[in-house]
Amino acid sequence: MTTAVLIVAAGRGTRAGGGLPKQWRPLKGRRVIDWTLAAFRQAGIEKIVLVLSPDDSEAWAEFQGQPGIVLAPGGDTRSRSVLNGLEAIEAQNITRVLIHDAARPCIAPDLIHAVEDALAAGSAAAPALAVTDALWTGHEGKVTGTRDRDGLFAAQTPQGFRYAEILAAHRAHPGEAADDVAVARAAGLDVAIVPGNPDNIKITGPADFARAEVILDRADNDRSEEDRMDIRLGNGYDVHRFGAGNHVVLCGVKIPHDKGLQGHSDADVGMHAVTDAIYGALAEGDIGRHFPPSDPQWKGAASDIFLRHAVELARNKGFQISNVDCTLVCEYPKITPHSAKMQAQMASILGIDADRVSVKATTSERLGFTGRSEGIAALATAALVKS
């Protein structure tokens, strides 16, 4: 089964104050949404549907094209936003979907797994906490009555569903609903209750930011020193010889030249070196382990396939790419006129800012095979940090 998470991040969050929608506000050195995304990546969820407001142009630009992320526009209501997100992955063979509020940044991977596991036995499952406090009704500041708390639960997210069933339920549901469980129940689906976590709070008001920071600090302190300081460095090196051709592809950019680079794929020596640097940091071998040159399906393949796989593997292991440095060694073609475009192309694939990607060139003073213009070499270093 293939699981995706749909993160609803299109709301305005005005009750939280701060001038920004709460999902974009800072929390313990990152944004609220960054903590939410990191939790699902740490849990191994590869496909993320991010529902954004059409007004959040900077967010659209930031996440557009990031590996594993599909963007969908928010609607006039939360239910419409969820439906937009579900429809955005209709053709991607998703079997299960977890629907989560971006404003719940303290979600723990074990709770994500618990909801996911519950879907093996049913169509829907959601976390909740049994209500333990006395319940009152009130009017104009005075208690007007009590309510029986037996059988009452406080709902949380992520709420999990078989994809096809919740898509059909949302399409059939008229108007707004309290949450996706309400939509599922209206469609006749049974929803299993998974024990929730008191730390899985939803940021609603200003005081919730302080609560979330305490929870995240505690979670960080509970991790081992090795986990908290897990910084990985990897090196990559690659060489391709010149042959017949009229261009080379370097770091994803096609450059006119009187020769071409020879290789089983498109021979992008720079991208290969960066890919191997990431694999090296993860102790995952090299490109040849994951994409054997003996396999004809990779003949002439675009090298961004390999790099995207390495980036996704890093994220699935709970790492973020901090920065990448790539050096191309050649006499010709000249790299500097194209380096900014290479930097932008690599940054887009890596899912990081362009100022965290270095692409530079040097010669070998006409010594060796690169000095004789027989080929191009590339060296790369990648730094990965545990999310």
TrEMBL record:
Keywords from the UniProt entry: Isoprene biosynthesis, Lyase, Metal-binding, Multifunctional enzyme, Nucleotidyltransferase, Transferase
Q: Which reactions does this protein catalyse? A: 4-CDP-2-C-methyl-D-erythritol 2-phosphate = 2-C-methyl-D-erythritol 2,4-cyclic diphosphate + CMP; 2-C-methyl-D-erythritol 4-phosphate + CTP + H(+) = 4-CDP-2-C-methyl-D-erythritol + diphosphate
Q: Does the keyword Cytoplasm apply?
A: no
Report residues binding a divalent metal cation: 238, 240, 272
**Where in the numbering of this chain does the 2-C-methyl-D-erythritol 2,4-cyclodiphosphate synthase domain appear?**
231-384
Names of the cofactor(s): a divalent metal cation
Q: GO BP, one example? A: isopentenyl diphosphate biosynthetic process, methylerythritol 4-phosphate pathway
| Pathway annotation from the record | Isoprenoid biosynthesis; isopentenyl diphosphate biosynthesis via DXP pathway; isopentenyl diphosphate from 1-deoxy-D-xylulose 5-phosphate: step 2/6; Isoprenoid biosynthesis; isopentenyl diphosphate biosynthesis via DXP pathway; isopentenyl diphosphate from 1-deoxy-D-xylulose 5-phosphate: step 4/6
List of residues binding 4-CDP-2-C-methyl-D-erythritol 2-phosphate: 238-240, 264-265, 286-288, 362-365, 369, 372
* E.C. no: 2.7.7.60, 4.6.1.12
InterPro entries given in the database record = IspD (IPR001228), IspD/F (IPR026596), IspD/TarI (IPR034683), ISPD_synthase_CS (IPR018294), MECDP_synthase (IPR003526), MECDP_synthase_CS (IPR020555), MECDP_synthase_sf (IPR036571), Nucleotide-diphossugar_trans (IPR029044)
What molecular function does GO assign, one term?
A: metal ion binding
Where are the residues of the annotated region 2-C-methyl-D-erythritol 4-phosphate cytidylyltransferase?
Answer: 1-231
Domain of life the protein comes from:
Bacteria
Site keyed Positions MEP for the nucleophilic attack: positions: 149, 202
Asked if the record carries the keyword Transcription regulation, the reply is no
**Sites annotated Transition state stabilizer:** 15, 22, 264, 363
Stretch list, region 2-C-methyl-D-erythritol 2,4-cyclodiphosphate synthase: 232-387
Q: What does this protein do?
A: Bifunctional enzyme that catalyzes the formation of 4-diphosphocytidyl-2-C-methyl-D-erythritol from CTP and 2-C-methyl-D-erythritol 4-phosphate (MEP) (IspD), and catalyzes the conversion of 4-diphosphocytidyl-2-C-methyl-D-erythritol 2-phosphate (CDP-ME2P) to 2-C-methyl-D-erythritol 2,4-cyclodiphosphate (ME-CPP) with a corresponding release of cytidine 5-monophosphate (CMP) (IspF).
Show the PANTHER family listed in the entry: 2-C-METHYL-D-ERYTHRITOL 2,4-CYCLODIPHOSPHATE SYNTHASE, CHLOROPLASTIC
Family classification: Belongs to the IspD/TarI cytidylyltransferase family. IspD subfamily.
Q: What is this protein called?
A: Bifunctional enzyme IspD/IspF
The source organism is Phaeobacter gallaeciensis
* Lineage summary: Bacteria, Pseudomonadati, Pseudomonadota, Alphaproteobacteria, Rhodobacterales
